[in-house]
Amino acid sequence: MHSTSDPAARHYKVRSSGSTTVTALVLVITLFVLVVGCRYMHGANTPSPAVIPDSTTILWTGAVTSTTARIVAGTDYNPADVRLHIDTLSSFRSPDTIRGMPAERGRMQDDALAGIVHFDLSDLQPGTRYHYRLLARGDVLPERVGTFTTFDDGPQSFRVILGGCTETGSRHPVFDSIRVASPDLFLHLGDMHYSDIARPELERYRQAYATVHASPEQSRLFRSVPLAYMWDDHDYGPNNSSGAAEVQDIAQRAYRGLVPHYALPAGTTGTVQQAFSVGRVHFILSDLRSARTRNAAPDNASKTMMGVQQKKWFKDELLRARDAAVIIWVSSVPWIANDLQENDRWSGFTTERAELARYIDSVGVASKLVIASGDAHMVALDDGTNNVYGPGDGIRTPVVQAAALDRRGSAKGGPYTIGPYPNRFSLRGANDGQYVRMDIEDDAGDEVCVTWTGRRWAYDEQRMTDLFRWEQCFSAEEASPR
Predict the structure, then answer these.
(1) Which pTM was predicted?
(2) pLDDT tens-digit profile of 77-97?
(3) What is the CB neighbour count within 10 angstroms for residue 453?
(4) Per-domain boundaries in the chain
(5) What strand order describes the sheet that includes 447-458?
(6) What is the pLDDT of residues 214-260, one digit of tens each?
(7) What are the CA-CA distances from residue 41 to residues 46, 184, 408, 425 (Å)?
(8) What class is the 67-150 domain?
(9) What distance, in Å, lies between the first and last C-alpha atoms of the chain?
(10) Fewest beta carbons within 10 Å, which of 43, 252, 432, 460?
């Protein structure tokens, strides 16, 4: 909240002549524009100067299944001296003690990853809430605590928050809103930070993620809700990055070392695509940056967002997912896009988009598929009407756009049957915050129903508001948990 000292809230009584009144009015308006403009240009939601990111701010959970999870922590200690207590009780009455492992195994540890510790948890109980805390050299680190909940076995209902595009180290209230919504998973669609790292220096990536975690609002979220995350351009490298970026190898190492990801089929090097299942819903996260052809290349069969190896994996993954009821494919950039001048999204890769659409149709998964994207700073939804790519009238799968968590609004791609709703700039001097809530209802019957709700943290009203709500049910007669 802003006090009445805010220039926008002041009332001026001018006692002099008309010209003086006009001058005073101009000064007031100028002052207001300068104050709001500076907040806008420099980020109204940047970390508090009192919060200094360091190596110990990183702590988050990912790769959660019904029986496993991964925790990544930043410390000032040798990983051999760090342990994790994990218990179903917050009092840690009888915790299990887990030994940490260094971020990179089998190679010389880079100084930029020193103190980064991985804890790979197994033999967990399905549908169980766990508490964890860090220890170093036998001493409990009281500020390094968190919690997560495993998924159930079999068909289940659950909640996912979809969102992306965040000022580096943002302290926006939207993150507390996400946490209070009690999602089972936070699916981050890219641009977690806007560091736009152009030089291959691993320390810059560690500092970028440490700045994210230095935000108390984001830290509280990441220490209480499991994460699945795929980068886009600004958190991979410079704006509109491709596989030709100088940072490619370092960015991939940083992701592997600093992010609690699911298993990476590419192994210890290369692209960072991944897939996992929750009940009868299968998630595919494609890496559309680190093997991408340059955007300016001719749009022909050799131009690719995925690269040859990842595209083969993607097609195989769709084939394996035919027994799922719903497939959520994370494409970090808009799929519905027809402006050929905008070549950073699928409108610049129409040959490959047509190839993928034909394949989706040929293996019979179009009726199961939903495409989720960030990049555009808006929320929107298409019920399939405008997804006209592929044989005949197109594959007609729904498309969901979920951003920006706090960045200035923009509209890309389309058209959409609902929206777009670009993120607004508030007269309070800060952007609103947006995301999409995805509620999956699965009672083990013959269908799985999914409801998407576009949500906005309205700064002017200081509360969450709903922008749209849309539901689709998918046949599950032949589906089985994966």
Answers:
(1) 0.90
(2) 999 999 999 999 999 999 999
(3) 18
(4) 7-42, 67-150, 153-475
(5) 101-102, 116-121, 69-74, 59-62, 227-229, 185-188, 158-163, 433-441, 447-458, 463-475
(6) 999 999 999 999 999 999 999 999 999 999 999 999 999 999 999 99
(7) 11, 34, 10, 11
(8) mainly beta
(9) 47
(10) 460
